[in-house]
Write a structure and sequence with these properties.
Length: about 325
């Protein structure tokens, strides 16, 4: 049985709007999700035992059953118990390049990679839509991570409509190493503060969702109008995270002042990104923001938007 190494890209949110909450406890969302080239490498190797064993080079990542990569193995074992017994246990090695608890779907993309990897290792022949149905059981962002690119995500984030891929732009990511934001905290706080404006009627939800589908940002993406893409970035969660975390607000302001296409917090933060026309502009933006905030705790990544989801890197 082959070993596989998969590339598992991170995502940023070009758009995140909270419409309401749902009977299943999740929020009703409209998002525009975008893959980036910053990616973890996930190796799956048969280990000749009955156990799943996790290894990771980042001590912030849990190595127990709470890891999304581990949960993906359990999901596949439950779905295909006989095949799982025949093939035996797997060693999963996560080479973590994506910052943890950063709003970049680092855990979700690892879960997605394990689903794709096991599909290959066990020769299951599952299609992308079949893998995405399984992925939705692991988490709202996991189906997107499988296919990647640029997509409108609705429902709790698992219903996807791909848009033309935007892979020509560059992005600078910045995050304080010691700062992380809990996704659950961000959504709960948003609900406490803005819950009275939530939409509940299903027709109203549909109409709000279709306004985004036919809205200005999607139009700008379709026409690769980078200036308007930069101007139309939006994230409702900034309303709670920026006020609770002043350094994140300061970082956001610093990006705004140095001249990029646009800047926004990704997901529930605390990563802030700046969209740029070229690698040169991205490197310059990074230098200027580092000068404006000379804090050694602040880390930067320069990367490109990508059209790739989970891909086999080697086998
Ligand atoms: P999202 O954008 O999907 O909300 P995130 O990028 O904000 O996620 P993650 O990097 O997925 O955050 O980390 C959130 C928490 O998930 C971490 O604090 C960690 O305990 C847990 N976790 C579980 N599996 C993983 C994994 N494979 N990689 C990183 N974190 C993981």
């Amino acid at each position: 049985m082959n070993s596989y190494t998969l590339s598992a890209p991170a995502k940023i949110n070009l758009y995140l709007e909270i419409i309401g909450d749902r009977p299943d406890g999740y929020h009703e969302l409209v998002m525009i999700l975008q893959s980036i080239e910053l990616a973890d490498l996930i190796e799956l190797r048969p280990n000749g035992t009955e156990q799943t064993r996790l290894h990771c080079n980042n001590p912030q990542v849990p190595l127990d059953a709470s890891n999304l990569a581990y949960k993906a193995v359990v999901l596949m074992q439950e779905k295909f118990p006989k095949i799982a017994t025949n093939y035996g246990g797997i060693d999963i090695t996560i080479d973590k390049k994506i910052p943890v608890a950063a709003g970049l779907a680092g855990g979700s993309t690892n879960g997605a990679a394990v689903l794709v990897g096991i599909n290959l290792m066990w020769e299951l022949g599952l299609t992308v839509p079949q893998l995405q149905t399984l992925a939705a059981k692991l988490g709202s962002d996991v189906p997107f991570c499988i296919s990647g690119g640029t997509a409108i995500a609705t429902g709790r984030g698992e219903q996807l409509d791909p848009i033309i891929d935007l892979d020509n732009l560059w992005v600078v990511l910045a995050k304080y190493r010691s700062l992380s934001v809990s996704t659950a905290w961000a959504y709960n706080t948003y609900k406490q503060q803005f819950g009275n404006s939530y939409i509940f009627d299903s027709e109203d939800v549909k109409s709000r969702t279709s306004q985004v589908h036919s809205g200005a940002l999607v139009d700008a993406i379709v026409h690769k109008d980078s200036v308007n893409i930069g101007k139309l970035l939006h994230n409702d969660l900034e309303k709670v995270v920026l006020s609770a975390y002043p350094p994140v607000a300061q970082l956001r302001k610093a990006f705004q002042q140095v001249g990029c296409l646009g800047t926004m917090m990704s997901g529930s933060g605390p990563t802030v990104f700046a969209l740029c026309e070229s690698r040169e502009q991205a490197e310059l933006v990074k230098v200027k923001v580092r000068e404006a905030i000379p804090d050694p705790d602040l880390e930067f990544w320069v990367t490109q938007l990508s059209s790739a989801g989970i891909q086999v890197a080697s086998y």
